[in-house]
Write a structure and sequence with these properties.
Elements lengths: L1 H6 L4 H5 L6 H22 L3 H9 L6 H15 L2 H10 L11 H19 L7 H16 L3 H10 L3 H10 L2 H12 L6 H15 L7 H11 L2 H13 L3 H17 L2 H14 L9 H9 L2 H13 L5 H10 L5 H14 L7 H5 L1 H5 L4 H13 L7 H5 L12 H14 L6 H13 L5 H15 L6 H11 L4 H14 L6 H13 L3 H14 L8 H8 L4 H14 L6 H13 L3 H14 L7 H5 L8 H14 L10
Helix pairs in contact: 3-5, 4-5, 5-6, 6-7, 7-8, 9-10, 9-11, 10-11, 10-12, 11-12, 12-13, 13-14, 13-15, 14-15, 14-16, 15-17, 16-17, 20-23, 23-25, 25-27, 26-27, 27-29, 28-29, 29-31, 30-31, 31-33, 32-33, 33-35, 34-35, 35-37
């Protein structure tokens, strides 16, 4: 029989059998057509209507075979929706174990369709489509391909299947795979939280859970109380291994969690244990680690011990450049600050006091603020180091130097703002009046932004909004950025509404530009939750607000590699009429593709050859951001 099929040069005879009245002849014709579809699909396609009639005839006993043949014809015609529809009608005859391109393509299309329906929360999903996906899951479980099950389950939001996959294989390794490789790629924040809840549930089913992984889940879910309870439980047992595990959890939280979360954990932990009584115990050590004291101490020691800065470069630069030019003075100041960042080595400034004294206006502000970069992490001595530059008795003598000192104080306490520092800088926002007040407020807002980064402190946000509403270009610009830093990643609706409304009202371009950045920071990492705001800003006539749309896309999808976000940025990069928007859109590609830098050179290759210099600048920045420290030859 196979030889006869191979010898066929035309399917006309087989097609004619479909017109016979005998069911057995029609069945024979369909069986033979199914075997030769790949060779004669073009010829058979002319008779597709006859095959469909057989499928729709409920008295025909071989309807599923007719559906399978029709599905294959539509596959070859490129009509994948129709091919899937008839494949679902073929039931068990549609063999998922077949490795042909037809089966693989139709299955992929079925999964994509199912994902789209589940994502739209449709209630009328075709049960036949669900049956195909369920059979796909069953095949993967049978072959123990749990990674594929996990991927499809997450995409289709089938948490029941995800849980079954996690407990069916090597649960610990699968939990780690989902946490580190899958969760961050989920676009929906709500689904992400549901997956984290499931991971927490599965972890806690073990007799001895991996508490480090459990606390990572809790930090993502923003459950400081439960986290503190686990730490308190580990310390209370007085078991050395458990105490060491608690130390590691504390270090991980300090490195990865937000300032708001770690402060809440410290408060709950100290309330539940004896960590606040001053005695040196594991509990007090854990509280100290969570506050960042131990990490900062280790960082300072490491950077000081491994400082390899060549002072000759700075000295020669200082001599060759005309320090009377603010641009040259700032360049040298920033070079020194970044070369000695966190090392506490301020020898260059001490040895060049005469050069430093030549700074004027904003150069003086930058020179003083640079001390914060150099002494970043010196939280115990921050006030002492900056005492010569800070105002005395709320009286301003040198506003640029004092404003820079406020900023430096915030940089020293970056992401670790103590109550004392935050209160001091908040007071500075309202303590000074007169013509120089906006310079001091500028420094205080930047300092508060650095010290309170990610804290979500609404008191600070309110204080900065009050500064913003004074409509001063100098202080308003800093308040806009500081507000974004403090509320970073919070998606705080009231703050976003206030910021957007004010951006439409104010006439100061500086403020609008920085509010655009601030909106992006507030939506940092929020993915789909930012889509409504992006859609609103993209339609604005004001190019500076469209620039805000670019910043929101960039920050909301930073590091995700999301195709939808990339498409939006590329569209803006080639179609917007404002050069600033186009440059920022191309630059944003570097942020979105941070975790896959090898894709950036290929993506910006054509943009780097654009006639528009702003687009070329954006391409260069995107390459630098995504490929920083990689030594990528394609990027170079």
């Amino acid at each position: 029989m196979a030889a006869q099929v191979e010898a066929l040069t035309s399917a006309t005879g087989l097609i004619s059998l479909l017109d016979e009245n005998e069911r057995e002849l029609q069945f024979y014709g369909l069986t033979q057509l199914n075997a030769v579809t790949d060779r004669f699909w073009a010829e058979i396609s002319d008779a597709i209507s006859r095959i469909e009639i057989l499928y729709e005839d409920e008295t025909f006993p071989h309807r599923q075979l007719a559906a399978l043949v029709a599905s294959k014809i539509y596959f070859h015609l490129g009509e994948f929706d129709d091919a899937l529809g008839f494949a679902m009608g073929a039931g068990e005859l549609f063999d998922l174990t077949d490795t042909s391109s037809y089966v693989q393509t139709v299955v992929n299309h079925a999964i994509d369709t199912y994902i789209a329906r589940r994502a739209s929360e449709a209630s009328d999903i075709d049960p036949r489509l669900e049956a195909v996906v369920e059979r796909m899951f069953a095949r993967c479980f049978k072959s123990k391909d749990y990674a594929q099950v996990i991927g499809i389950a997450i995409e289709t939001r089938r948490l029941d299947v995800l849980e079954q996959a996690l407990v069916s294989g090597d649960t610990q390794s699968l939990l780690s795979y989902v946490q580190h490789e899958c969760v961050d790629l989920i676009r929906s924040i709500s689904v992400q939280e549901q997956v984290q809840e499931l991971l927490f549930k599965v972890h806690m089913q073990f007799d001895t859970p991996d508490y480090e992984a459990v606390c990572l889940c809790l930090s993502k879910l923003n459950h400081p109380k439960k986290t503190a309870e686990i730490l308190e439980m580990l310390v209370k047992d007085q078991n050395e291994d458990k105490i060491l595990s608690a130390y590691q959890i504390a270090f991980d939280l300090d490195a990865n969690a937000t300032q708001e979360f770690t402060k809440a954990v410290v408060a709950e932990f100290e309330a539940a244990s004896a960590a606040g009584d001053g005695a040196s115990t594991p509990a007090t050590q854990i509280a100290s680690i969570l506050r960042g004291d131990e990490t900062l101490k280790l960082h300072l020691e490491f950077l000081f011990r491994n400082n390899k800065t060549d002072m000759n470069i700075l000295n020669r630069t200082c001599k060759l450049l005309d320090s009377r030019q603010s641009l040259a003075h700032n360049a040298t100041t920033f070079s020194n600050a970044f070369m000695h960042a966190g090392t506490t080595v301020d020898t260059f400034l001490r040895n060049n006091l005469e050069w430093l004294a030549r700074a004027s206006s904003w150069s003086k502000f930058s020179a003083t603020a640079a001390l914060g970069v150099i002494h970043r992490g010196q939280v115990k001595h921050g006030f002492h180091l900056l005492q010569p530059y800070l105002p005395v008795d709320n009286t301003s003598a040198s506003p640029f130097s004092e404003g820079g000192a406020f900023f430096a104080l915030g940089l020293i306490h970056a992401c670790h703002g103590t109550e004392k520092v935050v209160t001091y800088l908040q007071d500075a926002l309202v303590s000074y009046q007169g013509q120089n007040a906006e310079i001091l407020q500028h420094g205080a807002c930047l300092g508060l932004g650095a010290a309170g980064m990610g804290s979500g402190n609404e008191d600070i946000a309110t204080a900065m909004m009050n500064v913003l509403f004074t409509d001063s270009a100098v202080s308003g610009e800093a308040a806009s950025l500081g507000l974004g830093l403090v509320m970073m990643g919070s998606c705080h609706e009231a703050t976003l509404k206030g910021v957007l409304d004010y951006a439409k009202e104010t006439k100061h371009e500086k403020i609008i530009r920085m509010l655009s950045v601030g909106m992006g920071l507030i939506m940092f990492g929020r993915k789909q939750q930012a889509d409504s705001m992006i859609a609103l800003l993209i339609e604005e006539e004001d190019p500076l607000l469209r620039l805000g749309a670019v910043h929101v896309i960039t920050m909301a999808y930073c590091g995700t590699g999301d195709n939808g976000a990339i498409r939006k940025l590329l569209h803006l990069a080639v179609s917007d009429v404002k050069d600033d928007v186009r440059r920022a859109a191309v630059t944003g590609l570097g942020f979105i593709l941070l975790r896959s830098p090898e894709q950036v050179p290929r993506m910006v290759e054509l943009l780097s050859e654009s006639f528009n210099p702003h687009v070329r600048v954006g391409a260069a920045l995107a390459l630098g951001i995504a490929c920083a420290g990689s030594g990528s030859k394609p990027a170079i």
